[in-house]
Amino acid sequence: TVKTRSNIAKKIEKDAPEAQYLAVNPDEITKLQEESKKIPYKREIVWRNVALFVALHFGAAIGLYQLIFEAKWQTVIFTFLLYVFGGFGITAGAHRLWSHKSYKATTPMRIFLMLLNNIALQNDVIEWARDHRCHHKWTDTDADPHNTTRGFFFAHMGWLLVRKHPQVKEQGAKLDMSDLLSDPVLVFQRKHYFPLVILSCFVLPTIIPVYFWGETAFIAFYTAATFRYCFTLHATWCINSAAHYFGYKPYDHSVSPVENVFTTIAAVGEGGHNFHHTFPQDYRTSEYSLKYNWTRVLIDVAATLGLVYDRKTVADEIIDRQVNNHGCEIQRGKSMM
Ligand code: ST9
Ligand code: ZN
Ligand code: ZN
């Protein structure tokens, strides 16, 4: 494990110096695990979040029923498109662009992605990226916000229902977030986050179907807003849970992330998670799933339009060497258990 991790660290340093904060340091991981045992930690449930998420799931159940039996076809299509484009705000925006710097985007494109990101309501990008950088740098330790060693449910959504482990805060404070704090688009989002997300996630998704094709406000609210929001959350959370549990590990046996085709489809192209943890600087986040990698298609189309540039990829020889030394050729290109 230790050898693999330091190799990856070296590769990241070489391929993408700006992604160095993600390089895993094996000595640090061991030290963290030792220190963690000494920190007194008592799980503290945040009942406000429990109540909100229970309510959201009741609302989503109503929305699913309406989507199947009552909604107009335009509302069904609209709900689907909101899920895909809100998803892009997470995958192409918060994840591949801002957390990993795996490509660069012009200001109009960053504004576009920030607006899409609001539809998904998953905390502002700066907070999302801070948690995500913690996740990559200290995977499966107490400094990882959704540490899978605390179980499937914790990694999936339980981590949003309890106070964070003190090590997340202590280690996370050491991350360099200056690149994001100096992006005016993200500063704007953070400053106006509450009105932006209420408008983008709930108000507009309700008003648009009513105004343009005469849907009832009741149905529009439960389908395009509530159900779609809840569904997008689970699709995202599955990357932290299912894509760390069920699948193959062609690139690195020593880590928990796997290749999982279901999450690739649900998360518009993000399920090549063993690849992604091994090569976090690669904007494709997977090697084989172009077919379902809608996020990559979006980024490539934006590049053709000149909105995106400097897309980073890892050379095939480096991938081959990694597979030979630390992964498994037979599992390559397979995505499920
Ligand atoms: C949501 C996010 O769902 C989901 C993210 C998933 C990530 C998946 C990644 C997978 C790869 C990409 C795939 C994408 C696929 C997309 C598919 C789409 C189709 N570092 O938070 P507080 C400090 S959000 C450093 O209150 P508590 C810091 O000082 C859902 N420091 O901690 C902070 O103050 P400030 C909607 C940190 O009290 C202070 O602690 N949102 C860090 O323990 C207090 O922070 C919600 O439900 C860090 N990492 O509470 C909200 N973290 O911020 C849920 C904290 O001022 N959140 N600090 O610097 C909460 O209510 C709370 O955060 C809490 C913890 C209860 C969970
Ligand atoms: Zn990532
Ligand atoms: Zn992960």
Automatic annotation (TrEMBL):
Keywords: Fatty acid biosynthesis, Fatty acid metabolism, Lipid biosynthesis, Lipid metabolism, Membrane, Oxidoreductase, Transmembrane, Transmembrane helix. It is found in: Membrane. One of its GO terms (cellular component) is endoplasmic reticulum membrane. It is a multi-pass membrane protein. InterPro entries: Acyl-CoA_DS (IPR015876). The keyword Oxidoreductase applies. GO terms for biological process: unsaturated fatty acid biosynthetic process. The keyword Transferase does not apply. GO terms for molecular function: iron ion binding; stearoyl-CoA 9-desaturase activity. Its cofactor is Fe(2+). The histidine box domains are involved in binding the catalytic metal ions. PANTHER family: ACYL-COA DESATURASE (PTHR11351), DESATURASE 1, ISOFORM A-RELATED (PTHR11351:SF31). Belongs to the fatty acid desaturase type 1 family. This is CRE-FAT-6 protein. It comes from Caenorhabditis remanei.
